[in-house]
Amino acid sequence: NMRLGNGMEVEPWLKAAVRKEFVDDNRVKVNNDGNFVNDLSGRRGIYQAGIKASFSSSLSGHLGVGYSHGAGVESPWNAVAGVNWSF
């Protein structure tokens, strides 16, 4: 954690992970259109970065971005933000 001169505390973070899906025969039937195979098997990488900040003892917030890509699956960039208020 980094403490700034105004009393604010900031914590940057990084996350990298590998996800493995073993199921490769997930048959699905939709109405009478026949069967299709929803095969998401394989490995993919997940990458995330963000920052958490404490503005005061009762107010904090966070920002984060993430991306995932791998065999047959791609999750485009996404972002999340939030504020926490304790009372």
Taken in chain order, the helices and strands follow as EEEEEEE
Radius of gyration: 20 Å
Largest sheet: 5 strands, antiparallel
Structural class: mainly beta
What is the average per-residue confidence, as pLDDT, rounded to a whole number? 87
- Going across the biggest sheet, name each strand in turn: 1-2-5-6-7
- State the end-to-end CA separation: 23 Å
Which word captures the global form? elongated
**Number of distinct beta strands:** 7
Could you say how many structural domains there are in total? 1
Protein name: Autotransporter domain-containing protein
Domain Autotransporter: 1-87
Organism: Escherichia coli DORA_A_5_14_21
Topology readout:
Layout: E1 2-3, E2 9-21, E3 27-29, E4 35-37, E5 42-54, E6 59-70, E7 73-85
Antiparallel strand pairs: 1-2, 2-5, 3-4, 5-6, 6-7
Protein name: Autotransporter domain-containing protein
Domain Autotransporter: 1-87
InterPro entries: Autotransporte_beta, Autotransporte_beta_dom_sf, OM_autotransptr_brl_dom
List keywords for this structure.
87 residues; five-stranded antiparallel β-sheet; two-stranded antiparallel sheet; elongated; OM_autotransptr_brl_dom; Autotransporte_beta; Autotransporter domain-containing protein; Autotransporte_beta_dom_sf
